[in-house]
Write a structure and sequence with these properties.
Structural class: mainly alpha
Strand content: 5-15%
Strand order of the largest sheet: 1-2-3
Mean pLDDT: 82
Radius of gyration: 26 Å
Helix content: 55-70%
Number of helices: 2
Number of domains: 2
Organism: Kutzneria kofuensis
Protein name: Negative regulator of sigma E activity
């Protein structure tokens, strides 16, 4: 009876080790593919519908971002980056 529990424990440990190795291989290959494709950390934008998103983008990119949800036929609104 003790032999069966030891054998089961060995199988469980082997399965866990195999799962961890497979996860590491997939993660490493995925990271390699992302660098090969040339993924940018962010894509610069010039306009946003949400004022909060526009302000955050203006701050991050250090340039004005148009807030399209606040446009009228005679007025255009943009979020300005803060100057220190």
């Amino acid at each position: 009876m003790l032999g069966n529990s030891v054998r089961g424990l060995r199988w469980a440990i082997a399965a866990i080790v195999l799962l961890v190795v497979a996860t590491v291989v997939v993660a490493v290959r995925g990271a390699d593919m992302a660098t090969q494709v040339g993924v940018d950390p962010y894509r610069p934008i010039t306009e946003a519908a949400d004022p909060g998103v526009a302000f955050a983008a203006a701050k991050r990119q250090n340039q004005p971002i148009a807030v399209t949800s606040m446009f009228t036929p005679t007025r255009k609104v943009s979020a300005q980056p803060r100057t220190p």
